[in-house]
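Lab notebook, bench 4. Still working through the backlog of constructs that have no structural model yet. Next entry is a single chain of 193 residues. Request: give me the structure tokens for it.
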Amino acid sequence: GALHMTGKIVIPKNSTSRISGITSLDLTNAGLSSTDGSITCEGVQMKASARFESSMPDGTVSFSLEAGAGGFELLAGKFYGSFKDRPLVLSASGTYTGKNDTLRISKAKTGLPGLGEIILSGSISDISKAPYFDASVHVAEISNGETYDFFVRETFKEQFPILSRLDVSGRSSVDLNVRGTKERYTVDGDLHI
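Model written out:
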């Protein structure tokens, strides 16, 4: 694998200073596991890149991230998933403002081909003291059959043979709004099956 980083600092005489950078990561046939061995992943092929720019002294940082990983097998507890033909993709962009300690995600998206994608946007304010989040989550056009096959049928077919005989079809989507703190929050939205 390889990790590349570049950076740039601009300090004009009578203007705001800026720091920017680009990081890229390229992994080939990588593996990982948790310290207790309950999560194991082998054969990871991954490409990721991240960009950021920060203005000084106000501490505003804008960022973007693009990543894709495939070619691997994951064992997490009883779940087994083969991502050899299903690359996991992730992208995100947003800003962090130091003055009001707020992270704004303009759009974050993750998904697996054939299954669907999850799109998130929103903000987390007062991050370092009492985080308050206000987010919208959209789960787009999930294939019920493909999702069932990947997460349930393949994982539990030996343990519960009846699950491999069930036929699941259709498409689903979810729109949620989540607001509050981790101790007290509200969730409202729509589920379409």
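Notes after review: The mean pLDDT is 91. The helical segments are 144-156. Flag for follow-up if needed.
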